[in-house]
Specification:
Rossmann fold; 8 strands; 38% helix; ubiquinone biosynthesis
Length: 236
């Protein structure tokens, strides 16, 4: 680890490394991400056309979002600190005939190498897994060029989110393995907005992602009380 790789916990890396071979099993532990992905991709595209855009996907995991953005015409760099996940991502992209640059590097380190080189930064379902989410937002602000977009998704911190995202998803519906989330790391939208403002990002939009147990599907809503998406923009 270097000083720019401090924002990671070994337990989190181990958690996702053990499951790395399951990233593309649409009926396995990462099924919720496969269900979420079409909605988060469409939400990004509603704000910015991805064709020809330089995109960095922070915490890309096995490449679920990275691949969908590359298929939409973006020039994608996917970064993660779980090497096992990146190996899966590279193999799957090769099989899908998609040209994606996967790198074992932290957002903070990449920000020192490639400041202002991306039109779009995405960080989905990742902020709630790091010790210092403000550092990720700061790195995202450094990576995106003026006029560019930063898209994040995470979990709100309130009683309803605890009930649905932990008790419901992990224990009752078993959509996720037990222990996937730590409620103390959930983030309220106002907190992310404040992090963005401190490094020059303006909050442009916010939407909720609501899971419907009967249909086993997600939908985009205006209810941000559990899962939510946020779009931030670096002014010109």
């Amino acid at each position: 680890m270097t000083p720019t790789d401090h924002n990671v916990e070994a337990e989190e890396i181990d958690k996702f490394s053990v499951l790395a071979h399951r990233w593309w099993d649409e009926h396995g532990e990462f099924r919720p991400l496969h269900l979420l992905n079409p909605h988060r991709l469409r939400w990004i595209q509603d704000h910015v056309g991805l064709g020809g855009k330089a995109v960095v996907d922070i915490g890309c995991g096995g490449g679920i979002l990275s691949e969908s953005m590359a298929a939409a015409g973006a020039k994608v760099t996917g970064i993660d600190l779980a090497d096992a996940s990146l190996q899966v991502a590279r193999l799957h992209a090769l099989d899908a005939q998609l040209d994606i640059n996967y790198r074992l590097v932290s957002a903070e380190r990449l920000a020192t190498e490639a400041a202002g080189q991306f039109d779009v930064v995405t960080c989905m379902e990742m902020l709630e897994h790091v010790p210092d989410p403000a550092s990720i937002i700061q790195a995202s602000a450094a990576l995106v060029r003026p006029g560019g977009w930063v898209f994040v998704s995470t979990l709100n911190r309130n009683a309803k989110a605890y009930l649905f995202a932990i008790l419901g998803a992990e224990y009752l519906l078993r959509l996720l393995p037990k222990g996937t989330h730590d409620y103390a790391k959930f983030l309220q939208p106002s907190e992310i907005s404040a992090m963005g403002r401190r490094c020059g990002l303006e909050t442009a939009d916010i939407a909720g992602l609501e899971f419907q147990p009967l249909t086993q599907r997600f939908r985009i809503t205006r209810d941000t009380s559990v899962n939510y998406l946020m779009a931030l923009r670096r002014p010109l």
